[in-house]
């Protein structure tokens, strides 16, 4: 990163706008330049401007806000800063500015305006403060703290790192390099280790809490389960036989009950049939009458139709007479309505002629006259109001004229009384200047008197100090001689101790022995791990051999079980087929009976009945026993398969462990043979005592070396302390000589200054008195009294009087003009008032004429139409015509409807007469057919026929009765035969005698006992199976748990090893390690700078003391010194090297090509200053642009390119050279 240019405006004492281009001459010709100027001139303000433009803050004031801006020049309303800088060949422009509201110097501060843009194309990258800072940090790799530590080394910051305590130095290293992440990593590793440890403990505790059944108890449970199986089979068979017996007994009892019910039902059905015989006879007798029913029904229907037609003809005759009378009445009403409608329409026509020709023209005329009266009355009112306003305005103007006349007289009187003020006004500003000069001269005179007193006091003080310094020098001389002798003795003692080895050689030997010890300890740890792995591998090999032999036995047993299972399964299948065939044949054998054909062959001879039917229980028992044995073989085989799988899995796990052990052993051996050649005494990996003996030997040698090294260091520190005291005393004597010389010069200067101040004070007093007398004469010549004191108040009074006089003069002219305007306005208003009065009289006469014409028109209208309203009259006659028209239409409609009804009635009557003739003919034919049929029927007459007929309900009831009686008898007979047949078959069953021995209650009791025993054994079987399954599940879960523990142990071992290296609760372990590396890097960079600055010293870390620093004096045999023993000049050089190293360290992301040093070089002596300037020259030669702020004359001579900041006398502002002004 390189600063290209700087532009700023109104910052601190640098008022105005300035621009410095570092890419132009003279800066591009020589990269080293000095920023010079007196104290307080504003040199550091240039660095503040760079920080403001890029980061909106300064090292001295922090972040600038509208409530905190002390950088803006006093009395100004705006300040800004703009910097162009280059990063990796690309130029950027950073801008910052702040204004006050309304552009006034006392306005409120507004929010800052910021911007970051690319110089090449003016592309704005960011225009918000937060985003701009983020982009700047991303582009440059520097935040504000790193920027001020790497590019801009501020005042008082050089020795901050060198003199810091260890804890402060650690914080500073962490802040500068961003190594706080290492502490966070250390804390996170510790946290992860704690969590992993808790999880490991929980898994191990869980494994310890699992309880399994013993092998003996499992065997007992299985034996008990095996003994229950045959008992269960026998119980199930007994239960099946008892179920069959009970079912046979229940079925027989049910059949006997059904047989009795069927006999009772048959007897009841036959009895009901006898009781209902009369009703059944009625049904059979009604059948001939049913066949005559159509002829009889037709005669009855024709009789009824003939009577109905005669009644309808009578009614229609009466209705036609009534309709004819109504038609005549409606015809008369229609004629009357027609005449009334014609009369109403004529009346409407006459009314409309009157309204149109007479009434409406009069109404329009009346409306026009009324509107005219309203308009004229409004004009009269407006004229009257206007006339009143004019009268009020005239009164107001008259009062104003009187007031203006009075004010004019008073103003003229005031001007006449104060005519002298007109002569004072031109001299007032001149008098102010004279008064200010007199006051300034008086103040300067007092200031000179004060300086004169101060100079006399300094003169006396310099004389006293010179006497004191001469006395102090006489006292220090003997002490210096004594320290010289002590130095000689300490040097001899240190050289005697160095015969056993110098500090450097002992340090090197100690470091070498420590490295040997660390390497030996690492090898000892590797050897222990190697032995441990070897032992574990041997144990695994033994276990694998045992598992291999066990697996061979299990595989043989499993193959044997598979063969047994195959043979037994074939036996079970054969028995199952045999039992199935026997069961089918048993069904047919059960159906055999003497003298009945066989259902299979049809034969009548059945020898099997003579020999007795063989039962199946023996074959079934053999089948069940074979199935039980098959199940036992299956369970044994499955158990062997589980054992084989478990053993194979364990064998595989042990093989994987052995392989991992072998890999780790190879790795340990490889590392061992790589490290052993670096040892002084080689050790064998098989010999466990060799590493232990080597460690003890190295520890003894380290203790011996440390003792000699401590003695040498103590002697060296004593010598160093003596030399330091001697050097300090020598330096103090030199300083005393220098101070005495300076005091002599100061005495001479003080005497000269005292004389000069006395002469200037006397001259200034005379000049002040002369000026005061001249001013007094000018004032009194104009009739004014000269102010002896409070000059400011006297001038304010004069200014006030002059201002009143000038205002009165101006007011006099304004009053004269106002009076003329007022008089002119009054005359105009009087004329307008007379004109408006005449116009008002004319308007009043017009209103009277219009009102008279309106009265005449109203009289004519009353004579023609009274007070009637045209709209109402029109509506009344229109409603009358509408009503009569509706009445006419209604009567006409009623007449047409009556005529239509009459025609319909006459037509219907004619049709009925025709239909009556047809009905009479049909009736005669039907009566003839009925009489003929009745003569051939079993009935004597019509009454006998009607008696034989049954109603539909009665006929339906009798038919239902007949069908139900017949169905009941048939059903009862069928059920009775079925029950007798089934009961006979049950009594003939082969087991019927045996099943009929015991009662039903006894069989139920036996069944209950068998069922209870069967349930108890089933429950016990379930309990045993559940217990064995749970035990097996726990065994499976435990195996998975052990696998999880072993798997997690690998993870835990890794995190435990990582924790032992870098983990700690507060993050100190890894943080200190990273800080140590950072400090080593910083020391390396600082030593490179020291080699260029001053080749005498080198920095190093104190052994075993954390982050403490010490200095090696290469000119004193590489002797080690504490940094606190350095002199002021030496400390400055070391601090400068550290500051430059910090700059290089912080700028690891970005190349730093610009460097600004704001440090007082005034504490350096001439020799150290030359060294510092040589170092700056060498830095400049490396390509860096370096700006140094200083006011030391030697630096001004050595650095030709200078940027001068000059104070302006007495104004509190400074400026740069004119070529930098914008």
TrEMBL record:
Keywords: Coiled coil. Residues 245-272, 313-407, 445-472, 503-557, 616-643, 712-853 form a coiled coil. It comes from the Bacteria. InterPro entries: P-loop_NTPase, Rad50/SbcC_AAA. The keyword Coiled coil applies. The keyword Coiled coil applies. Pfam families: AAA_23 (PF13476), SbcC_Walker_B (PF13558). Residues 5-251 form the Rad50/SbcC-type AAA domain. One of its GO terms (biological process) is double-strand break repair. GO terms for molecular function: ATP hydrolysis activity. This is Nuclease SbcCD subunit C. It comes from Vibrio penaeicida. The gene is sbcC.
